[in-house]
């Protein structure tokens, strides 16, 4: 009887996770590059802008997502027109994902050899060209692993989204497993989420190994 609901929940989880990762991951990549680039001594050095962005990221990132969902409710209603449902869950998920991604990107760009960047600058490459053809390719393997780690965080957020009617496996496990004392339902949702994580992590590890061998 619950099988159709299970498949629907899997679809809702994948929808939330994929949209969040694509949009939040892309915006976070841009923000992370800006954070790295505006650090003292880097390509776009700007101490004021870096400090402002750094403070914003440090304020948002530590907030537990369940509290962030509640705090974002007024803005969510203004932007998407409702605070309940899958779409209402995706909006705050994208914001949190963007912030988390930006810090991961910044941290993985910092170890890039400055000599490689200076060599590109000495050859007359523009700053955007250096970012696109030198900086990101040099850090691509660790960035892929970082995005795999991010997938786990976004999957966790999608589970919490069940508290605002966002649907997904988290809501399925709580509504039909925990609240009805059905451990089979709860563990079915848990196992599916574990499988999703293992598949994504395995793909990311394989791609990263391939890039490191080149």
TrEMBL record:
GO cellular component, one term: plasma membrane
Residue ranges of the TM segments: 16-36, 48-71, 77-99, 140-164, 184-204
Entries under PROSITE patterns matching the protein: ABC_TM1 (PS50928)
Organism: Bifidobacterium dentium (strain ATCC 27534 / DSM 20436 / JCM 1195 / Bd1)
Family designation: Belongs to the binding-protein-dependent transport system permease family.
Keyword Membrane: yes
Subcellular compartments: Cell membrane
Swiss-Prot/TrEMBL GO biological process terms: D-methionine transmembrane transport
Matching InterPro entries: AA_ABC_Transporter_Permease (IPR051322), MetI-like (IPR000515), MetI-like_sf (IPR035906)
Keywords for this protein: Cell membrane, Membrane, Transmembrane, Transmembrane helix, Transport
Domain ABC transmembrane type-1: from-to ranges: 10-204
Protein name as it appears in the record: Permease protein of ABC transporter system
Main subcellular location of this protein, as a coarse class: membrane
Membrane topology: Multi-pass membrane protein
Source domain of life: Bacteria
